[in-house]
């Protein structure tokens, strides 16, 4: 990591802030704006700023007075029938990147080198008119077992930069491949929706094939010739899932040949568990049930309490609880928020990022949050003047 | 304040929690659940718990295993054409109560002694069938200047309790009178809406009249015979206002004769200011404009930045900023949240409770908050698994 002292200083300034941990945390963060308008009139193209950063998070790039938005990101969003897939694919890809590109050394830039057209061609089926398609040719079959499904649903580029002289230089790139576990298709336009299920074995085989091809293509582009290329594979959840999918493995490549995969053992679990479902850790399930029972028995007018959780192996990494109320009064919301806090501290697992959102049918009324490091919940009631 | 040592201990336990300041704050709060199931089977009716409390906030009452909801509160909600009035009437009434009934000594209970029927009768016009109506008789006129308007739009009771033996005892009550500044009426059912404007002088005269009558009626009820009765007057904002109204004065009564009014100098201001509007403090207006300009110039795709603020005299007490974005990507939201934090610390007034909600068209994406005592913003990005 060839980091100059200047960079270290910049990073130190950026990281005065503490808190804002990856997901679900609500630390006290003092973020510092770092304006690096180091170039003069002559070199205006290289003028950049960063968004400021916070512990464990990347600073983002502001160039020529504008936040640099993704070149191809919209593609992902449009094509997903489950919005949780889109959100967790994007934020999860950053989490995988953190393993390789430390937020304390690198600045995050939304993908800039693969254009919308390129990514669209890659995501389409291979055909005479689209030789670059990474999805298989249409074999004409409409039978769910015999047809060639769409394996690759979305592809996202994320750039990791370092300061070089007066500008930023690309020092690494992460490519996310979102693989379908179910491919939804129609037999005729506007017709009923059918499904082709894709096995885990197929996801692995196809993602390896696609990763090899993507790596080869990227190495041909001058920007990507000599930088580390991380390729991470995401398994999409089905459209009827209440959570998004998870990243299942990644590979960190320095050369042209695909390096060995490293497995990622994530799992998303919804509480309360259904009848035929199990938790990686039955204590967590019991803890949630106790919390739910306590809160429901003491407060009338609750419509439901559910939690989305993320596991790594059998260790919970994050929990996001939603409580839907039929309250109206602000005093009731305040009292309920306080009560929920006491019960959450008593029953919910410690050492885990937890957030609890209390909402009425139309909007968020209040929310509570505790990071893995904290002992007590912070809370906020949305007030009105 | 006849507080026994036992009570002090209870209060001390309740107030282990710190933070959760009145509005807009997001302190770290450690709330303690205080279960006071002190009575046995014989006396089950008096079994109560509290919701737990936090610094500067009331603990609420849980009785017989249920949070005690308001007897008459629904009335307020139904009758307001401006939902901000309802919310700020209820939370503002608690703020006025804090002047008289300290949250460190009293436990808050939603109003239990005036029934829905009673309050409904009081809010209706006086008539042969409803001699208790506090609003004037219908004089038959449909002319906006000649008719008798509805002066009293809503009435709310809040009870302030202390522990007495094994149960809670009413030690004070606050009555909020929400007075119309505009009365909306129809000349025929389902017809167009007309307005009768009500002057500040009329609001004062009528609220004094109504307060005297309410005090007289409450003193006849055994529960209210010997407790302090605070009556607070709220001036409703018009239906087209983007904020709610404000409390304009209150009176703290120990006897049967209405005590002197004390004025409350609150004002709600929306930023950016309109052309013919002014701010109680022009520095605040400039500060907000600078913040808005900075944020808008650096991030594309923002739909709007507005702030609701509360003033006491010319001192800002709270600011609630809403930023509407057209972002989709979670990485963009993260970067933007970080950037907004640096700009808010740079430009927005210090020593004031500030919260900033970042939302897309459909939901809250992230939010930032800083209490008056804090120097830096806390932030939370709503993640998805």
UniProtKB/TrEMBL annotation, chains A, B:
Signal peptide (residue range): 1-21
CDD domains: CamS_repeat_1, CamS_repeat_2
One Pfam family of this chain: CamS
InterPro entries xrefs: CamS
Ranges of compositional bias, category Low complexity: 28-37
Segments passing through the bilayer: none
Tree of life domain: Bacteria
Region of interest: Disordered: 28-53, 124-147
Record keywords: Signal
Keyword 4Fe-4S carried by entry: no
Protein name in UniProt: CamS family sex pheromone protein
